[in-house]
Amino acid sequence: MKLIVGLGNPGAQYERTRHNAGYLAVDELARRHAAGMIPKARFNAVTLDASIGGEKVVLMKPTTFMNLSGRSVGEAVRFFKLEPAEDLLVIVDEIALPVGHIRVREKGGANGHNGLADIDRTLGGSPYPRIRVGVGAMPPGWVKADWVLSRFSDDEQGDVRTGTAMAADAAECVVREGVTAAMNRFNRKVAQNLPQESPEGDANQQEPGGGGSAARAG
Fold this sequence. Notes:
Layout: E1 2-6, H1 21-33, E2 40-42, E3 45-52, E4 55-62, H2 69-80, H3 84-87, E5 88-94, E6 102-105, H4 114-122, E7 130-134, H5 144-148, H6 157-177, H7 179-186, H8 213-217
Parallel strand pairs: 1-4, 1-5, 5-7
Antiparallel strand pairs: 2-3, 3-4, 6-7
Helix pairs in contact: 1-6, 2-4, 6-7
């Protein structure tokens, strides 16, 4: 069994924002593989049972807000007795990638992404694969929290659909053929001025900290 988690924030005010790229990818997987299935509220999340290539899959969107994503993931991992490196896949937004691009990683550090950081804490540092979905670099003069919580522009919508579909394709490949196959197939070079990846394989993405609903969402 596989658990595929799309990170994001619940509520109408966050629908289709950049930070909800993971939600969009899981919605696409649900459209393809869980049509007619009834969503379940469990693990502080919304889940759907699905099947990909004959493999049982649970699709999950945490409803804890981004910065507490580990609560949902940890509950599900413990309930299903999963091995994160083999059975968990997390789909998350990435500001170091252009809209319409993705990057598949076998493991890596959170590098400032609060959702991944909370999952890392909950899992005690156990490695797990992830798909990073490009949401575009922050323009000059923007505050990071405002940028990731902004909606995609009309001009970006075509690339959003491309990136969402590609993330879903990559997730299917991970389930059917494994992470290495997905990395070989879907990772590609983008703009030459993208930041160098860290040894753990994730681009640096600093997020705001602190308390309050805005911080939880960010």
